[in-house]
């Protein structure tokens, strides 16, 4: 959740709910590093989550925007966007 009053840098951020992700060769290599895999499973346990969506290339829906991102780029909740590395 964005909180511009506590974190001024949140003004230029967006929160995206992933709908689809790509899992490329570099992701596969990272997954097989025990430190990364342990970090993922530990965070799932800490957050009481049954799954975690991995991948750095994604299609998702914006669920929250900072004021700067909305004003300058026109991003709004409900917009569907994609990312790339």
State the distance separating the first and last CA atoms: 23 Å
The percentage helix is 25-40%
Order of strands, main sheet, comes to 1-2-3
Number of domains: 1
Can you count the helices? 3
Q: How large is the radius of gyration?
A: 15 Å
Structural class: alpha+beta
> Which regions are unreliable across 5 or more consecutive residues at pLDDT < 50?
none
Number of strands: 3
Query: Strand share of the residues?
Result: 15-25%
What's the rounded overall pLDDT mean?
A: 88
- Main sheet makeup: 3 strands, antiparallel
**Quaternary structure state of the chains depicted:** single chain
**H and E string:** EHHEHE
* Bulk shape: globular
Explain how this protein is built:
- The structure is a single chain.
- The protein has one domain.
- It is of the alpha+beta class and 85 residues long.
- It has helices at residues 25-31, 34-46, 67-73; strands spanning 14-22, 57-65, 80-82.
- A 3-stranded antiparallel beta sheet has the order 1-2-3.
- It starts with 13 loop residues before the first strand and ends with a strand.
Topology:
Layout: E1 14-22, H1 25-31, H2 34-46, E2 57-65, H3 67-73, E3 80-82
Antiparallel strand pairs: 1-2, 2-3
């Amino acid at each position: 959740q964005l909180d511009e009053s506590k974190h001024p840098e949140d003004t230029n951020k967006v929160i995206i709910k992933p709908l689809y992700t790509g899992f490329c060769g570099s992701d596969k290599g990272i997954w097989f590093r025990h430190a990364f895999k342990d970090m993922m499973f530990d965070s799932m346990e800490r957050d009481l989550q049954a799954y975690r969506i991995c991948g750095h290339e994604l299609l998702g829906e914006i669920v929250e925007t900072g004021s700067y991102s909305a004003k300058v780029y026109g991003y709004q909740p409900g917009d569907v966007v994609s990312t790339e590395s």
